[in-house]
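Section: Multi-chain targets

For targets with more than one molecule, the full set of components is provided together so that the structure can be written out for the assembly as a whole rather than chain by chain. Components appear in the order listed by the source. The example entry contains two components.
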Amino acid sequence: MTIVFVVLIVMAFIAAGVALYFVTIYNGLVTVKNNVEKAWSNIDVLLKQRHDELPNLVSVCERYMKHEAETLTNVIKARNMMAGASNMNERGKAEGFLTETLRSLFAVTENYPELKADRRFGQLQSRITDMENEIADRRELFNDSVNIYNIRIEKLPDVMVASLLSYKAKDLWQINPEERAPVKVAFSS
Amino acid sequence: MVELTNKYYLVTRPISEHLNEVLKFIEVASDITGIGSPTLKQRLVGSALQVIKTSTNKEELSNMASDLTKEGLVSTVISKDELRRAPTPKRCLALDASTKTLHLLGANGEVLATINKAQNYLIVIACHGAGKLQAKRMARRAMNTSNSLPINEILSFIYRARPFMDIYLPGIETPLRIDSARFNYNSLGEDNRQAAALNFPLILSLIKNHSKNVLIDTGFGEVQLPFLTLDSAEGEALTNQFTTYSRFVYKASARSIFASVTIGGTLSSLPLISELGGMLWGGPILFSSAGLGGASALGGAGSVLGLPGTNQTKQKSKEKTTSADPWDEGGSGYDSKTSKVNSAGLPAIPEGLGPVAQKYWGVKGFFRGFRKFTGDKRFMKSLGPPALIYPLAILTIIPLVFFQLTENWSLLSLASLPAGLGVFIHSFVLLQRKRSIENCPTSKIKTMPMGEVELQGKAIPKYFLRTPFSRTECVYYSYKLYVKVRTKNGYKNVLKEAGSSGNVPFYIDDGTGIRLIKPEGAIIRCSRTEVIRGDVLTGILGGASSFGSGDKKVVETIIPSKQLVYIIGYAHRVLMSTEAKKRGFITRLRELKNNKTELLTKHDTDGDGKISDNEWEVAKKDLQDKILVEELQADKRIDDIAIGEHPSGGLFYISDKHEEHILKSLSWRQPLFFGLALTLIGVGSYYTLHLKSIQVIVELLKI
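Its structure, encoded as tokens over all components, is:
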């Protein structure tokens, strides 16, 4: 009789252990999912700040770069694309396009010494470049969070809970294929 | 033989700062010394030691000193040669107050001396404005003979005028000098107040708190020593004169100049300065109560420090063995008799109990045991939620205590049930910890988000911190002192003392930036240990015999400085305290008030060359706005964001291991503890169900 009691007690603890284990898995999955969203929101804050700085940058550039209307239009177009992006994927793509247009804008400004000498332009350029770097770092953190999430929902035993919650794999924030293309270096002589 | 070349000084402790209280002593002092009344009126009124006569005849002066002391004027004789040979003080540049004792550190962080509760100390304090202080005292006395400068005002003046002080340790003639201009205030840790005027009282309080009794002398400048010419002395010349003066006070105190005396049937002793934690003041025998904590209860006579080297001191230390020590009991208010009375009411310990059982006998013993097993809060927290772990610890300890008393083995089964439940909870805490670490990606400090973060980088000390035994520079340490004791089965190491550096903040640097870590509430795991034993340890412990005579061993666990650490915690903005803000505002306001040019240029709106009340109000408002803007702009300072405890109880974990190692270790520990929990519960239930009383309950349940 005593043995039966003991076995029952141990079984009860094993059952409690299994239940607690699944609770831990469930809580963990909720945490990683929210971590991904938080990591994205942290990038979004910077994107918003950069978005707000762009009109100022364009207005400063316009005064000096009369013949670079196309470049400036591209920046505005990219900014509008960002504003119109409705989901994470679209925003990611728009962000890539914007980064590229800004890069070409800053490259073109090399031909305008007066613009380069403008204090306000210098401030804006440095602020936007700092933000770019911060976005790059946070993008890394975002990808880490997505990676953890994707691994979690595919691994046993988490996959059982994840399928119950209908959790789907999320996309990493990848760079545009053009950015990955080999750099063409042309020497003048 | 009379030494013709040497001079001797007859030194007297002043009676009072008020002439009317001194008058009755003048006549008798004049008779003994042959000094005229007007001169004595000058010399015996004040708060500092006075040289009332100089002579080459030592014997004559010694007789005078003896006669004066009998009349209530405590006096002694000091030779000029003694003062000429004043040793050069050692520079103390930092403090280490991280342990129970206070270490005074030199230029390379070496320990110059250790202040401890077993000793008395003498501090002679002065400042670069000593001449001005003397003038201030004289002016105050001249204006109103009954209104002397209170000790608090004297100290406050000293703190503001580049202070310096000499600390005399028992048995060491060379003092340790702390100079406000050459002191590392960071070593004061969190209390560091960034200005000598604020830090000096803090240093004094620290010394007082770590020592038995401290006597402070503030008389530099007031004492009329023939070799002191403060009017023209500045810089190095002034500190050289101070060296001689401090030696003078040291010699006088070693010859019982600060002993208690009976005047008119009333015992008068040293006054206490309440602001400095009850530090004794080497002031006049009859002192005014202004700024003082009241008369000291010290009853006995004797030299300050119990300094060796004089016959009087030796006599005093002999007296200590037979009578109450006035330096201890009087100052702390401790009464050894009371403690005996308290313990008398406890029930007698049953005979036949072993020493361990005796230790944990009764309610007191139970709590001693409970404290022993659950005393380390950081450790208890790492086991699981305190609300569950503490009750389970109590439920485990109760049967264990009874097992020790009765040696009834069946009680162990009762202990194993709550213990098993505790281990069960702990296994899930480990699982949760593992998953928290796995779930959190590692951030770079530069772009670290607020909220839960995981960081890896080098630990950089914010404050100077060293381990108490191996003296390793570190950001965190804990230590355990074991003493080897003989048992029935041989020898075993018994834990006698344990301690840690507590919650000293430090920085983490990952190459992209630096952030502050506030380890309060963190689970700290460090793998590096230092074991100190043998002669090295005996040398460190010195005379501390409270740990017994057995072989001792200290195990220190350290996170050394520059060690790579892993941290998971909660990043948050640190808000400046209201008090600190208020202090900062007042300082800025004072600066503005002193800068008349700026004040008039910016705020004299009516151009009358004066600042009216309204203009001052506007100036204050402007300053408030300016400070607010500065605060908002200063958001990138490294101390503004700190990693600390999660407000809702999330994981705050600091380890000197890499993330992968931590996860690997948790991977096997979690199932191991789960298995152990099931075993304890299984075995515990089996034996518990075999207990007769339980069987009766089971039978009843069946019915």
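The longest helix of chain B spans residues 659-689.
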